Amino acid sequence: MKDLFKNWNTIPNWISFARIIMVPIFAVLFLNDEIVWSVFVLFLSGFSDFIDGKIARKFNQISELGKMLDPVADKLTQMTIAVLLYLRFSAADGLVKTFSWIFLIFIIKEFVMVAFGAFMVAIGLKPSAAEIYGKAATFAFYAVMLLLFAFAPDVGAFTNLWVIPETLLVILVALTAILCVVAFASYLPTTYKQFKEKYFNKK
Within 13 A of 145's CA, how many CA atoms are on the CB side? Predict the structure, then answer.
């Protein structure tokens, strides 16, 4: 824990704190049908997620706290988005209502990762950092969800300009869900290795 807060006062960490604060702001805006503003907050969160890592690497501001805060902010944001879209689409009509269950995949995946990550920290292990699959899944998630919040039926802020065909909507969300499951599986070997070294390689 002492090392966790070493050199914590950095710009990337404050950006991650801001992203965590954006989560309830986004949720309140969405639930009050302020869709345009909620899309703006979501875009701001995704953009800040993109730049904080670059700032950390360029200015040598990588910290142990940052390695934890960044994925926490990601998971809280993604879980909130999935819950809100599940509630909205499950109350809709037609195909989007039928496939709304797919958002449960995102919810369960993020909940398991947050809970298990907290458990690993509690027993002195370090949750695995995001690999290429995790980064790709995060990018795809933000891109597709921004598209839904902008143009999806019953949700989109700009459906007066264009509405995503329901079949395309289902395909995009399903592909994102598959990518998230693949990303989740990619964490398992490193996590297993840590448990093996800590508990099974003792002499």
Answer: 28
**Cα–Cα distance for residue pair 137/134, rounded to 1 Å:** 5
Q: Which range of residues forms the domain containing residue 17? A: 3-195
Long-range contacts of 52-58, Cβ-Cβ distance < 8 Å, separation of 24 or more: 52/11, 52/12, 52/15, 52/16, 53/12, 55/11, 55/12, 55/15, 56/10, 56/12
Tokens of 36: 């345009």
Amino acid identity, position 88: R
pLDDT digits (tens, 9 = 90+) for 10-44: 888 888 899 999 999 999 999 998 988 998 998 89
**CATH number (domain holding residue 40):** 1.20.120.1760
Per-residue pLDDT of 118-130, as tens digits, reads 888 778 777 776 6
CA 42 – CA 143 distance, rounded (Å): 10
